[in-house]
Specification:
single chain; alpha+beta; five-stranded antiparallel sheet; 10 strands; about 50% helix; elongated
């Protein structure tokens, strides 16, 4: 009889105390004792919480990785140019700092705090005379530098790190393999990357005009090169002077209306006939 009572009491205790912590998606459970959170957690599976929920209880935390793509961050450089910077992060709740994670509002709270931190650090970097770019053109090329600044400031890398250790930590974070704890937020930073840095507003329109003009200049250089090559071909084919070749080139392009009789210098009948054939050919092409 006593054995049955003992078995029954054990079964009742297990029924009251045994709780399941989900594994899909992965969770941990922060243990509470009489309503007070302990720096103790239990991983997924069936776990004992004696006299649940009065004595021991659990606060579940979803441990999946969180991807966070921030809206374009608007900053001003030292020369007061307005830029926008795209930033993305990946992070995971850190089980060793689970209480800090809960204190900051879990996922939604941490997302907001990270967005504020990124915004503040980027603005400080962009406008800084010492740490930031000298002007907006330099800022457009400073994606790597801005990424390093964010990782150092947000991840809070220890000051006693060697350069080699710091470089390796930053490399892993940029590749998405980071395991850098941010204890004050209760998370682990896995990845931080800066995408495109581009001008905004009037600066964007001005920059677009600069690019357009540059392309036009490059196009003019190519056109000039081909023109020079064509002039050389005319000189070699007709045995005429450089000036005559330029006049013929302009005529065949339709840029100058020129009669054969106006060509300066002595030109043989054979050369004249060849010129007439060239002009006749170009007139047909141009629909003349």
């Amino acid at each position: 009889m006593e054995l049955l009572i003992l078995i029954g009491a054990t079964l009742i205790f297990l029924a009251i105390s045994l709780r399941h912590i989900p594994a899909d998606p992965p969770h941990i459970a922060v243990v509470t004792f009489l309503g007070r959170r302990l720096r103790k957690f239990k991983r997924e599976g069936y776990r004992l919480f004696p006299f649940y929920p009065v004595i021991y209880n659990a606060v579940l935390i979803n441990m999946t990785k969180k991807n966070q793509d921030l809206p374009p961050q608007v900053v001003r450089t030292h020369d007061l140019a307005e830029l926008e910077i795209n930033v993305s992060l990946t992070w995971t709740p850190n089980e060793n700092y689970a209480i800090e994670y809960l204190n900051h509002g879990e996922e939604s709270g941490v997302r907001n705090i990270l967005a504020d931190m990124v915004r503040e650090r980027l603005r400080e970097w962009a406008i800084s005379v010492d740490r930031g770019p000298k002007n907006w053109e330099e800022a457009l090329r400073a994606k790597d530098e801005a990424t390093l600044v964010l990782i150092r400031d947000i991840a809070g890398l220890p000051v006693d790190l060697s350069k080699e250790e710091e470089k390796e930590i930053i490399r892993k974070i940029r590749m998405g393999d980071g395991v850098q704890p941010i204890s004050q937020l209760g998370i682990t930073l896995n990845r931080l990357n800066i995408g495109e840095i581009k001008p905004r507003g009037e600066l964007a329109r001005a920059a677009e005009l600069v690019v357009k003009e540059k392309k036009e200049r490059e196009g003019e250089k190519v056109e000039l090169y081909h023109a020079m090559e064509r002039i050389k071909e005319i000189m070699e084919a007709l045995g005429c002077s450089y000036t005559q070749a330029i006049e013929l080139f302009q005529t065949e392009r339709g840029k100058v209306s020129k009669k054969i009789t106006e060509i300066k210098g002595n030109v043989s009948d054979d050369v004249r006939k060849a010129i007439e054939q060239i002009l006749d050919h170009w007139n047909k092409i141009r629909g003349g």
